[in-house]
Amino acid sequence: MKKIIIKIYQLLLFLSLCEYFLIPKSSNAFLPKINEPNQQELEYTSIQIGKTAIQLIEFGQIDDAIKLLELAIKLNPKETNLWIILAEAQIKSNKNYKALSSLNKAIKLNPKEQNIYFTKASIYMDMNNLQKAKVTIKKGLSINEKNERGQFQLGNIEIMLNNYKSALKAFRRSSQINTNFWQSINNEGLILYELNKPKEAISKFKIALKISNNAEPMLALAIVLFSIDNKSIESINLAKNALKSNPQYISKEYQSKQLWGKKLQKSAQLLFISKEMKKIVMKAQEIIQ
């Protein structure tokens, strides 16, 4: 780890010198007699800078990464991936409007790149601009309607707009494209329960749970089973294991962020107040406080 960090800062020093010599500060700036790099060399250097910026992002050094990416783009402004990486760094730095601007520039360079639209839609979702998010995600899907994550994202937007039937269609398309995409299968279950189809919801949660032993389908399955039979030992055991795995699901706010509907949240509270769940619920509350 230390060796990597040293290499990164050595490169940063080298790049700062490059910026000084390659990018004039004014028309009267002193220009030493150096060999001017050709376009191929500039493009290669920009890609290397981009790779270094990705490492900085992984280390959580977002501001430094953004500075590097801005330099890389000066050297190679027509490289779509640099604009995309810059946007991702700006998102992590809560600079959503700047990220949108970067993505718009990426779209101008490569309007056929579907993932740019999906990233852009996620920003609109964070900004709670759901209509723009929906329009943007559909642009991405018009390029490739068989993108399972794009369909999943559309389903999430439809849930947030309370369009449950449209959301269900999007999640079904997603899970048909990728039968192992448990998140879409799980979200089908969330909607089916809201649509008063508990048996179908149970089936979906069980399938999702077989693919991934994740806390969400585990707890959702427990809640629905408990709503049918409040003496179910299976539901209590599932719920206990789910909350041990992720105690945040005890919070209504967290449930809402995971797009749980009102009916499932209400059923969750009935499970949580049962005497069998008292200890594990108290422990989960202590952990998240």
In short:
It contains 16 helices and no strands.
Rg: 24 Å
The percentage of residues in β strands lies in: under 5%
N-to-C order of helices and strands: HHHHHHHHHHHHHHHH
Regarding CATH, which class of the largest domain?
Answer: Mainly Alpha
CATH T-level topology of the largest domain: Serine Threonine Protein Phosphatase 5, Tetratricopeptide repeat
CATH architecture descriptor of the largest domain: Alpha Horseshoe
Q: How many domain regions?
A: 3
User: Which stretches are poorly predicted, pLDDT < 50 over at least 5 residues?
Assistant: 20-31
Helix content, binned percent: over 70%
Described by the principal axes of the CA atoms, the overall outline is elongated
The overall strand count is 0
Q: Give the terminus-to-terminus CA distance.
A: 33 Å
- Helix/strand-derived category reads mainly alpha
Average pLDDT works out at 89
Most strands sheet: none
| Number of H- or I-type helical stretches | 16
Write up this protein:
It is a single chain. This protein is an all-alpha fold. The chain folds into 3 domains: 42-111, Tetratricopeptide repeat domain (Serine Threonine Protein Phosphatase 5, Tetratricopeptide repeat), CATH 1.25.40.10; 114-179, Tetratricopeptide repeat domain (Serine Threonine Protein Phosphatase 5, Tetratricopeptide repeat, Alpha Horseshoe), CATH 1.25.40; 189-289, Serine Threonine Protein Phosphatase 5, Tetratricopeptide repeat, CATH 1.25.40. The protein contains 16 helices and no strands. It has helices at residues 2-22, 39-58, 62-75, 80-92, 96-109, 114-126, 130-143, 148-160, 164-177, 182-194, 198-211, 215-228, 233-245, 252-257, 262-272, 278-288. Helix 2 packs antiparallel against helix 3 (62-75), helix 11 runs antiparallel to helix 12 (215-228) and helix 12 crosses helix 15 (262-272). It is elongated, with a radius of gyration of 24 Å. Residues 20-31 have low confidence and may be disordered.
